[in-house]
Amino acid sequence: MAPKSFSFPGIFPALLASSLALLLLPTPIIAVHDYHDALRKSILFFEGQRSGKLPPDQRVKWRRDSALRDGSTAGVPTLLPHPTFSFFTTLGSPVKSFMPFDVYFVFQVDLTGGYYDAGDNVKFGFPMAFTTTLLAWSIIDFGRNMGPELKNAVKAVKWSTDYLLKATAKPGVVYVQVGDAYSDHSCWERPEDMDTLRTVYKIDNAHPGETAAALAAASIVFRSRDPAYSRLLLNRAVRVFNFADKHRGAYSSSLHAAVCPFYCDVNGYQDELLWAAAWLHKASRKRAYREYIVKNEVVLRAGDTINEFGWDNKHAGINVLISKEVLMGRADYFESFKQNADGFICSILPGITHPQVQYSPGGLIFKAGGSNMQHVTSLSFLLLAYSNYLSHANKAVPCGERSASPALLKQLAKRQVNYILGDNPLGMSYMVGYGSRFPQRIHHRGSSLPSVAAHPGRIGCKAGSRYYLSSSPNPNLLLGAVVGGPNVSDAFPDSRPYFQESEPTTYINAPLVGLLAFFSAHP
Fold this sequence. Notes:
Blueprint: H1 18-21, H2 35-48, E1 76-80, E2 84-88, E3 94-98, E4 103-107, E5 123-124, H3 125-142, H4 150-167, E6 174-178, H5 181-185, E7 200-203, H6 209-221, H7 227-246, H8 251-254, H9 256-259, H10 270-284, H11 287-296, H12 315-327, H13 335-348, E8 358-359, E9 365-366, H14 373-393, E10 397-399, E11 402-404, H15 406-421, H16 445-448, H17 465-469, H18 499-502, H19 506-521
Antiparallel strand pairs: 1-4, 2-3, 5-6, 6-7, 8-9, 10-11
Helix pairs in contact: 2-19, 3-4, 3-6, 3-19, 4-6, 6-7, 6-10, 7-10, 10-11, 10-12, 12-13, 12-14, 14-15, 14-19
Protein name: Endoglucanase
Signal peptide: 1-31
Enzyme class: hydrolase
């Protein structure tokens, strides 16, 4: 789809003054936003997405324990030939007993915990790992701006990394999904009630690169907070990365029927390997990862589709992350990554034509494909992160004969955040619970069905359909959830069946946490 044409007179002089940046896009509503309140709620959202045994300090009270047997179907019969058992007599003396026959035990895999990715009850490892990486990056770059919410952000990371450690506990195997998506999507039921297939999917000959990146990034978060846990995360990241590099290939190649069309690795495995290496280099400072990145830059296509960043395509994130070292004057050998990052910035600035990035009439970044807010928050996060790196180096981004200042990048990122919070043609917030007007009928099973406290009896698979089709607001507010958002014309149907617009996801919120943290400290 061809991008809309926008004209912004005077917006790109040789050096852009920050005051001109306010003229970037039409702003129908000017509001003073409480970024700290939005930050608090954006982190609280993750507690509503928790799977497993909920902790005593759980703040989203309408949720209950769920999926407590996840992993039980992945048990592997293990042969113990002629085992010897020890037991104790009533007198307390040990007795050894030799069994004259083989015994089989089924050792179950514990895959409880983690997050439901969106409004369903499946645990998809690929987007969960990306969510974890972006939450960790938010803390690494903007944790100092989070105030009392920092501890909750760290808890949100750990809830995921605890699960990812379970999913990678067995060498040579990574468990990448729990739950049959087709079975789950045929039902509308609370996670506390679900009786759909909890099939476990694993890979043992394809890459889990994003998982390695998530573990490495999180190891930085816990480096000073919990050194032992940080070392565990980093060591596991190294092992998973080595496995991924040895078995190069897209995880969806061997699990196509299970993960597609939901989270297909359409973009291929190459970007995940570079992404993981970049985070391992940042976390370990080992020369081997620097050399890996330089050696594989072309082979793994670092410069491809640089205006994409999300759970399937890490290219822009790779280049921005690595460019920090160039801008700090420590890594000239990564100069080509900075050139790629500059190209990415130029490709998404309004007024510069690019076939894959457009803006709605109200000023929202728009990319075709559904759940557009994932692009808005992820690309805005990179704009903000790169603007900070540029500011420290006193640099700007050259876009042909024009130049974009760090202040411009910040203002564009802020404009996107403000749109989400209510500065848009409809005058509504797209974050549940923020502002006086926000989505009421989000595509989310737990939020739309009566809570266990309100309706203790089980609500079966098809019994939930009447709640799905109801025009009534959801009974449980999933505070902080940001939905997929309006279409390219700024129109928004507040209706559950319109899942591309009304469904929240963890990977929409994860980069938004960093954005809100920064703007709460720099309003």
